[in-house]
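The record is passed on directly below:
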Amino acid sequence: MDLPKNIAIIGLGYVGLPLAVEFAKQYNVIGFDINRKRVEELRSGNDFTLEVEEDHLKSVLTDSANNEGLFVSCEAEDLKHASVFIITVPTPTDALNKPVFTPLIKASQTVGKVLKKGDIVIYESTVYPGVTEDICVPVLEQESGLTFNEDFFAGYSPERINPGDKEHTVTKILKVTSGSTPEIAKQVDELYKSVITAGTHLAPSIKVAEAAKVIENSQRDINIAFVNELSKIFRLLNIDTKDVLEAAGTKWNFLKFTPGLVGGHCIGVDPYYLAQKAIESGYEPEIILAGRRMNDSMGSYVAQETVKMMIKKGARIKGSKALVLGITFKENCPDIRNSRAIDIIRELETYHVDVDVYDPWASVEEVRHEYGLELITTSDNLLESYDTIILAVSHKEFLELNLSDLRKDTTVVFDVKSLLPKGTVDARL
């Protein structure tokens, strides 16, 4: 089976860039992104997501779409050189938690305009079963004038990137693949198998592959919701949740999940896609949405419990100073998308608490644009003391902070991530 020579990756974020770099070691790869600033940064070897090191990125960059390596572009015209298109754009939700397909549709329109006979379009974005063939393919047909499964073909291979994880990188995570015909499915599988050292799993259909992806994160969401509920119960019983989980974890088949804030672009979003499809199909999901409600409540819960402890210590609330440690959605990663630390901040603000946010990983400009907050990026700019300190994200830098220098007798310290020694904090989830 002859593999294609030219591959286009549409969307060069946390998912697309690492994939493009790996393919570029063997193929001619056109990396396409509509963000011109992002393209210019990548051309200079700089990846602000920190998923690809500068030397690694520079080693595969090329200045031509016809050369082996990675050619980065924001010009749709350059995509015409490719015969396989891999779409890795975000799939967000709106304010009502409804799926937003705009990035997928626009990416499909862009690809459709350069689609040729025999080409294959593979989607990696997380969706519910049916989106590839029912929503994306019609756009490709309309823009190209070609017929699906006669003139062009489709595949689906869900991304499994874990931002900030330097151990489970793209080539080391087994890849689920699928195609719109048996022959194309094999070709898609062989293509990924050529770069994924962990191997592949060929699903029997695109819909199966779509469903497999969306339940991966839904399962994690539900399990985290369970331990979040436990943390609320055990707090009422004056029992340390971490101690309980460590004791229970000694059983061989106990699933080791920990309580916390559930944000990011996967676990905090994907279950809504599955729930939407279930509702459209006439079924009202119960467990999935209950898990989402529990996890979405944790930020405000932490803030409310913090205020209660401050009152018990005799601290004033209105006009008090709070320090929130971390605004990214997870530790040791600059990604601020769908960060639930913002829920803590917004809830504290309803009590007229002045909040400082310190995060050495996040971008000042992104935080200002996304959340309207002025970020502190170095501990030198912190106040002498705060009325409460909430560790929301377990960045490694926070282990080096001497919190005793930032607190007074009435200061409340809430360790959401159970990162700090138990005796140094007032509460933890």
User: Anything to note?
Assistant: The longest strand covers residues 407-415. Residues 227 and 258 are 6 Å apart (CA to CA). The chain has a mean pLDDT of 94. Residues 206-236 form the longest helix (31 residues).
